[in-house]
Inverse folding.
């Protein structure tokens, strides 16, 4: 349709949302569907956080706020960064948005010009390249393969950087792989960035608190303080605090960049939900003990899924350090045929056939920029995960 912007032709709808939507439609039509596509914890928002939101409503805190966050939330964010990451920011260096996605989008819109390049390690969260394209930039994909535990090497980062590079988008623990970079691994990457002072770092630390087996989270500006002035450290309350629907994300960085992001937000959505902001204040300032309790459950689910998928001939399923995803390879299944004659040509064919045959919805690896793989979200019940993995085992056993 010629009436629509040509910019839209550069991007595609979110595949993860598409899978979740399709699974919901099939379920509504009566099919027995187990959705493993959504990156959303099945835990309820903690009671103290819900109570803070209710209290905000009852206190009449339902009016417009400053475009990028109330002072109380910015203060809580500054305290969180210093307490947990050793990073000191002032409220003028903080931006609060309607979810982490808006924070990333605002930053890209505020900084990218045509021709600017953004290095994105693959597998990547599906929205990164399309947000870069919407902002007029050019995604440069650097593949972090299974052989390297889905982690970008310093050599790969060096090779991806050109004089046109403006940003590196860095996500650890990762969506979709759950891979987490150790301090030593991250230091090797920041050493490369120190040799290229024109490159800024946009971190996506959304899964910071979802880490297992003693993995210790760290973020780039924490590992290399000299990067502080060219790092936007992004985070949010969606995943660890089970607040996906509250839609609060935040970031801290140089004042000039934050001011530019504020300008964009003031002319687009304006402030995030006032009630959600007050709930987020309680999330960051209140008790944190539930985080470790939830992680015990997530680790158990991770181990269940990895164990059952690893039993399948043709599938390789590495053990992730964090988040709530696994990213198995189906390289050993490519070329095989289903009982109805469908040839497994790629991971999209596999995922579609799996859904149609078993009702298990996963997201195909091509959506994340690295094939042949698929992503499983284990942020659902043990019972559902066990049944889903049994169905995947049976499906693969029938391939010839």
């Amino acid at each position: 349709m010629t009436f629509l912007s040509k910019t839209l032709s550069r991007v595609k709808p979110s595949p993860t949302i598409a899978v979740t939507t399709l699974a919901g439609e099939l379920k509504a039509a009566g099919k027995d569907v187990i959705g493993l596509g959504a990156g959303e914890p099945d835990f309820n928002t903690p009671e103290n956080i819900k109570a803070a939101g209710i209290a905000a409503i009852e206190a009449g805190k339902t009016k417009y706020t400053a475009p990028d966050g109330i002072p109380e939330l910015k203060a809580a964010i500054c305290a969180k960064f210093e307490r947990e990451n050793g990073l000191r920011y002032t409220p003028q260096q903080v931006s609060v948005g309607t979810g982490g996605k808006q924070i990333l989008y605002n930053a890209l819109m505020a900084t990218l010009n045509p021709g600017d390049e953004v290095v994105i390690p693959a597998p990547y969260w599906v929205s990164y390249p399309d947000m870069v394209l919407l902002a007029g930039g050019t995604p440069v994909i650097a593949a972090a393969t299974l052989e390297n535990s889905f982690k970008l090497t310093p050599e790969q980062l060096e090779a991806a950087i050109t004089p046109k590079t403006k940003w590196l988008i860095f996500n650890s623990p990762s969506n979709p792989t759950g891979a987490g970079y150790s301090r030593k691994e991250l230091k090797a990457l920041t050493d490369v960035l120190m040799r290229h002072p024109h490159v800024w770092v946009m971190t996506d630390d959304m899964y910071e608190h979802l880490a297992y087996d003693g993995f210790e989270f760290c973020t780039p500006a924490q590992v290399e303080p000299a990067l502080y002035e060219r790092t936007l450290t992004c985070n949010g309350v969606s995943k660890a605090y089970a607040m996906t629907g509250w839609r609060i994300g935040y970031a801290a960085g140089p004042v000039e960049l934050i001011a530019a992001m504020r300008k964009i937000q003031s002319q687009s959505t304006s402030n995030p939900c006032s009630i959600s902001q007050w709930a987020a204040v309680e999330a960051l300032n209140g008790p944190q003990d539930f985080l470790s309790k939830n992680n015990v459950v997530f680790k158990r689910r991770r181990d269940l899924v990895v164990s059952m998928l690893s039993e399948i001939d043709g599938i390789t399923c590495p053990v992730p350090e964090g988040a709530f995803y696994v990213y198995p390879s189906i390289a050993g299944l490519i070329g095989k045929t289903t009982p109805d004659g469908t040839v497994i040509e790629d991971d999209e064919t596999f995922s579609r056939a799996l859904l149609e045959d078993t009702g298990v919805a996963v997201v195909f690896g091509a959506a994340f920029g690295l094939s042949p793989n698929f992503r499983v979200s284990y942020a659902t019940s043990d019972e559902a995960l066990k049944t889903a993995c049994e169905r995947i085992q049976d499906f693969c056993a029938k391939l010839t």
About this structure: The chain has a mean pLDDT of 96. The first strand starts at residue 34 and ends at 35.
